[in-house]
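Give me the fold.
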Amino acid sequence: MKADKRFLAQPKEFWANVRTISQTVGYTKRGVGRVSVPTLEEIRRAFQTLKLTTTHIAADDGRLTKFGELLFAYFTHRAKSLNDFARTQLMNKDEAAIEFERLKESINSKCPLPMNKQKGEKRKFNFLTCMVNMLVEANIGNVPCNYDPHGLTTVTRNGVPFRTLSRRVDGAFPSIVNPVAIWEIKEYYYTTTFGSRVADGVYETLVDGMELEELKAVSNRKIYHILFVDAYYTWWDLGRSYLCRLVDILHMGFVDEVIFGREVLKRLPKLAKEWKTQYKQLKATSKEPINGGDIANKSKEVEE
């Protein structure tokens, strides 16, 4: 899922209203099982409780302002994109296993295929991570890729570190030094509750996106930031409000795409080919190291 361009250039005040309305009115209605669109009356009641005005959203007679029209257009788009698209793409563990096995049989892969950290019967491949790795490998040819970064992403200027991100990501192309693209993967097939670990994953993506925004502002350097998520029960049955937050983050420009479940099968091959083209262009023109190594392998050993 890519952002709707209508909402990409909105000021921070717009997102302050989106968050306040979503939090006070609610992202969903109990018993409905879908993401909802707030009504003007619900917004008015919520803002009255907070002792806030709604004159910037609508006049007393109910006529929406330009700002109000845009707000309701966004809430409608968010609900439709999640209810009609994301929900249909999310897989459960059995569906993900089938897609993984099918892909594994069709691709002669040499990339890492990691296992999850569960025990006993739950000890399986990380289905989504493995599919991401295989699809990237199949579409970049002999170009290098770091499928398991052990260090922080670093961008250089004149051969020295210029910005280094705060968190490790789940993948970097071609490496964590001056990458073309980085990605994070949030797959929770065996989670039974929507706990703090899952919620924290949303905000971690936000932090990464804010750092990348600052990097682009000071250097005009663009790094593609992709988020992959899957597990129908965790994200849809338990975490629809957090899916709304992901769509908000997407339209705030802190992530370039959010790829839901089986969407990875059609979308990622196209992305990987685009990254490969950009890598070749950078390698031919950039004076900075494009193919850097994993600069933090040793630090990982110390931490462990």
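The chain has two domains: 7-89, 93-303.
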